[in-house]
Amino acid sequence: MFKKLFPSVKGYGVPSIFASLSVIAETIFEVLLPFLMMKIVDVGIASQDLSYVVRVGLLMVAASLCSLFFGIMGARLAAVASTGFAKNVRGRLFHAIQDFSFANIDRFSTASLITRLTIDVTNVQMAYMITIRMLVRAPVMMIAATIMAVRINASLAMVFVVAVPILALVIFVLLKVAYPRFGKMLEKYDAMNAQVQEKLTAIRVIKAFVREDYECENFEEAANTLRRFQLRAEKMVILAMPVMMTAMYACIIAVLWFGGLQIIGGTMDAGALFSFISYVAQILISLMMISVAFMTLVVSRASIRRIVEIIDEQPDIADNNAEDAPTVADGSISFSHVDFSYNKDANNLNLQDINLEISSGETVGIIGGTGSAKTTLVQLIPRLYDVLSGSVKVGGHDVREYKLDDLRSNVAMVLQNNLLFSGTIAENLRWGKEDATDEELIAAAKVAQADDFISAMPDGYQTMLGQAGVNLSGGQKQRLCIARALLKHPKIIILDDSTSAVDTATDARIRAGFKNELAGTTTIIIAQRISSVMDADKIVVMEEGKISAVGTHDELMATNKIYAEVFRSQQKGVA
Amino acid sequence: MARGLKAALPNKGGKKEAKFDKPQNIKATLKRLLRYMLAYRWQLPVVAICVIISALSGVAGTYFIRPLINDYIVPLIGQQSPDLSGFISLILTVAAIYAAGVLATWAYQRIMLNISTGVLKKVRIEMYQHMIHLPLKYHDSHTHGELMSRYSNDTDTLREMMSQGVTQLFSGALTLIGVFTMMLVLSPLLTALVVVMLVVMVLAVKKIGGRSAGYFIRQQRELGRLNGYIEEMTSGVKVVKVFCHEDKSKEGFDALNSDLREAAKNANTYANVLMPVMNNLSYVNYALVAAVGAALVIGGRFDLGGIGSFLQYTRNLSQPISSISQQFNSILNALAGAERIFNLIDEPLEVDNGQTSLVNAVEDADGQLSETDHHTGIWAWKRPLEDGGYQYVRLRGDVRFNHVSFSYTPEKEVLHDISFYAKPGQKIALVGSTGAGKTTITNLLTRFYDINEGSITYDGIDIRDINKQQLRSSLAMVLQDTHLFTGTVRENIRYGNLQASDAEIEEAARLANADYFIRHLKDGYDTLITEDGANLSAGQRQLLAIARAAVNNPPVLILDEATSSVDTRTEALIEQGMDKLMEGRTVFVIAHRLSTVRNANAIMVIENGRIIERGDHEDLLSQHGRYYQLYTGSFEME
After folding, report:
1. Angle of CA points A124, A130, A135, to nearest 5°
2. Which residue of A has its CA nearest to B311?
3. What are the φ and ψ backbone dihedral angles of B69, each rounded to 5 degrees?
């Protein structure tokens, strides 16, 4: 798993290595200091040699300044390396998501994708920083300090040989017990937050049904549970400090006792004892640091897993990269024996045995109830999904033979939940054609009946839209989306319930515009309102994933019960 | 240490946003927090004593190095059979002091954990209770994110402050004072040297802190920009794909990503640098003390054991300083959070002077109503009378708006002089464009908002005299935005009537035409609904919301765009079901799709906050007015 992220170090390998080297240098100078101090006490004081004291003292100051220098270097280089690494990971993730097919996107919620790009990347950056700093510093310090201690007095160093494994074991057990408890606590925490969020969104429902007190009871329960789990988890964590203190104090007392005896016995000097006390701190704190670092890595493992999940996700629509890929010749469409399932499960088909021929330039309406798979059907045309079996042909070739770029620039689709992006209206329209001239923009907007309201705005086509076009009405947004699609000058244009918020008169004008301006373009219109499709060359009635009937308005009125019923439900009462 | 360990454990699954808000009124906030802690008044002194023991034991232990060396080790050097009894007893004394320190540390942390989780629980519950009872007006004018951060960020920092911050600040200060005193006792001269170095350290921290704040703000800004882009492009990724815009989208991202990296590099550098600088400056201090101390010993002005103790103190000095400087910021931060929490709790609640309540009633032979405690199908308004008695008015569902005017904000009136009536058994429809004021009418009828002028009566009673909760229980609403809760389909429908039996729930689902699709879900009525019903289509969610209102079996039903995502054929079926349920009761239908309102007894066309046409479908068509225009599609309704 960690290996999968390794390529993202690229470009920052050198600062990473030098950050670690600086940390090592810093640590070694730090370990040297108690040793020099010992020399001052045991040699300098003992021999009453002031110049020796001054010399070694200056050496100590120099060593700590070196340590300071390398410490700063390490900090800077680690920042350079870890933010660079994070940048690479974030970039890889974003690029991977942009290359996802619709089926890939459906597997992840937008919120989860955003979490991965933001919080998870930050966690990984932290983990990387810890790896190149703490996880280098702590073991190096522990080993170096132990070596110094052994060199000074091997028998007294036995204190560490006993203390370190015991402390390590206790910390290990502590974390082992605490970790799952923390997991549980976080679950309760998230559950409580989710509950608050949910109730906040639905506050009107709560008030309408007068369920305030009922909700408070529920929340009280959640808050009580959270506290219980919090106590269970934190109870373990607060043991860490006393355990650490116990180990540290026990070592100091052991050093004082055994060291004291050795001094009395004449096998050791007081300065060595002082340096040992410093090494106690250095060694035990390093041990603690290692455990902290490991915990962070364990925690970030979840983030890494979520990131790798995205990087590993294979776009399930493979582009045809062959040189001899055909180009879309015309706007004819043919479905033959198409089965489709979102889960790729032949027993749970969303579309079943679809056969449909559409000639280039035809206008086709699609009608059907909620969930009858109208959208599913048209999404196969620009190959947003691949069929399970059968084939979809555009311009005489199977859609899988085209390059995706070519296919999708010729098949424009106005999605049901269409989005505009922050930027000016003109910028949004140019999504359809990057180098479109102002005249082209206006022409497309005119066909989509959007020119009038755009021109009426103070800044016209240069009006800034907020995120997702918040400052427009639903009907205006839909019309902009249509204009944006028109700018592609596609051979096929698909409107998926794209005029639902537009009034019937404007809707009719849009359709009339299509007829006049886009005579050669195949037009497919999915609509709730029969009036939107009544005058199509062909109307397809969908029911539960199957085509129930195809025909003109008059034919369907005569032969199709559902169609006639829908029509009547919409027309009933007209005088 | 414990702090470090905690930082490594999972961090509440979310990022902590760094806020630099300063608390406005520290004293009042602290006082209020203290009031919560008073519930633990017997535990607090124990905490204080334990903190003192914990801090001072560390200081005292270190001091004993001196007498140990000077009095019990050095004099014994070279003796054949030294008398170790004094040495042993001093070592045992030190061990006892340390043991007391360890125990005290554990004890105060454990008690504080108990107190902090307890206080926080109380704060959370109070906050929630208050929040849920706040008027809709408050909810409409505050974002969810804003309120949510009270529960997550603000309570978290508050808890951290209570369980660690305060005690660490206290114990850090005590340690600092203790160490300093002992240093002075040991050697005033060396202490002066330490003070000089301390000044250098504090200056360094200040300088680094000042620089880093600027870089940090820049990093947050870049992060905000990048996150905004990510959010937009990730939500819009399907559009990106349809327009083959992947490369452009990546290009835009890469630029922002590099900008963030530049800012993050600097911000991180300063964050990283603080610890090594503090640590190594303390080593410089250590080096100087060692050399100067040794020189003093040589000069006969200091002793060997003293150097041992003093050197330890020098090393112990940097830790409380950095811990105090850390805690200080986080405490200010937590107090700012606490203030936000208290502000929420202090928000004024809905005013409700309504005395009239809704009761189940029975009717005796001569038509007199009397109160009963069981469900009879008859409801009555119980009105207090001047003489202390009660008057019972049968609930019929007669709703009248008399010259009602209303505005959400003083500068913009949204309803002007609205008058209409709904007689029991009538279906009243309101049509009009978005923003015309249709939903506002339901907001007024339910007293989510109170009217400015005119009056609304319900069975002849002014609704301002009716208790709000009772008023709302008499109305069932299906709202424009359907909201479902985490739980099964069955539980969601039952929300309308907590006492409903399974059979009643299924009956309601059938009336709402939802039974068919529910049965086709994976687990039927026991299918789990998650994320506000993300696994259902918009139409299906609306059907469930209608079923939820149906099981409530209300005297008055309000359908606010309740079937906007349902196809017209299904809508007609629902209408049949609801007509059956609501026979003889009042129904309000709000829609902009005309097929939804066609069968109403009276249709009100609302435009710009005024009723401009009224009548039934036939009447309105024959008037050839705005309704006619809407119907024939010559007018856009948005």
Report:
1. 135
2. A274
3. -70, -50
B549 → chain A, closest CA residue: A209
Asked if the C-beta of B133 comes within 8 angstroms of chain A's C-beta atoms, the answer is: yes
Q: Give CA–CA dist B105/B397, Å, rounded.
A: 67
- Among A369-378, B252-261, B314-323, B411-420, the range with the most confident prediction by mean pLDDT is B252-261
Mutation target among B234, B309, B349, B473 for the A interface, most CBs of A within 10 A: B234
Residues 550-589 of B with CB under 8 A from A: 552, 565-572
Helix (H) or strand (E) holding B280: helix B246-298
pLDDT tens, residue by residue, B182-233: 999 999 999 999 999 889 888 888 888 788 878 888 888 898 889 888 888 8
> What pLDDT, in 10s, does the model give residues A238-272?
888 899 889 999 999 999 999 999 988 888 888 99
From chain B, the residues in CB contact with A45 under 8 A are 294, 297-298, 304
What does pLDDT average to over chain A? Answer: 87
State the Cα angle at A59 between A53 and A61, rounded to 5°: 100
Query: How far, in Å, CA of A126 to CA of A140, rounded?
Result: 20
Q: What is the pTM of this model?
A: 0.78
CA-CA distance, B398 to B395, in Å (whole number)?
8
Quote the longest CA-to-CA distance of chain A: 120
Q: What are phi and psi of B436, to 5 degrees?
A: -75, -20
Q: Residue A257's pLDDT is what?
A: 92
Nearest CA in chain A to B314: A278
| d(CA B366, nearest CA chain A) in Å | 34
Q: Where are the domains of chain A?
A: 2-312, 325-410+524-575
Residues facing residue B357 across a β-bridge: B382
CATH of A325-410+524-575, one of 3.40.630.40, 3.90.1720.10, 3.40.50.300, 3.30.70.870: 3.40.50.300
Q: Which residue(s) pair with A340 in the sheet?
A: A351
Q: In this complex, which of B233, B240, B265 lies closest to A79 when CB atoms are compared? A: B265
Is the Cβ of A196 closer than 8 Å to some Cβ of chain B?
A: yes
Helix or strand holding residue B331 (H, E): helix B304-346
Return the structure tokens found at B297.
């010993």
- Nearest-angstrom CA–CA distance, A220 and A206: 16
Residue type, B149: S
| Whether residue B355 has pLDDT greater than 60 | yes
DSSP state of B161: I
A2-312 and A325-410+524-575 in the same fold:
no
Which member of A76, A114, A186 has the closest CB to residue B269? A76
Whether the CB-CB separation of A284 and A146 falls below 8 Å is answered with: no
- Rounded to whole angstroms, the Cα distance separating B290 from A149 reads 19
Taking CA–CA distances from A248, the nearest residue in chain B reads B98
Strand partners, A336: A391
pLDDT at B18 over 60: no
CA distance A183 to chain B (A): 8
Average pLDDT over residues B327-343: 84
> Touching check for A404 and chain B: CB below 8 Å?
yes
**Is A2-312 in CATH node 2.40.37.10?**
no
Enumerate the residues of chain B whose CB falls inside 8 A of the CB of residue A350: none
- Contacts A370 to B, Cβ<8 Å: 537, 539-540, 565-567, 570
A199 to chain B, any CB pair closer than 8 A? The answer is: yes
- In this prediction the ipTM stands at 0.84
The larger pLDDT score, comparing residue B516 to residue B564, is at: B516
**Percentage of residues in chain B having pLDDT higher than 90:** 18
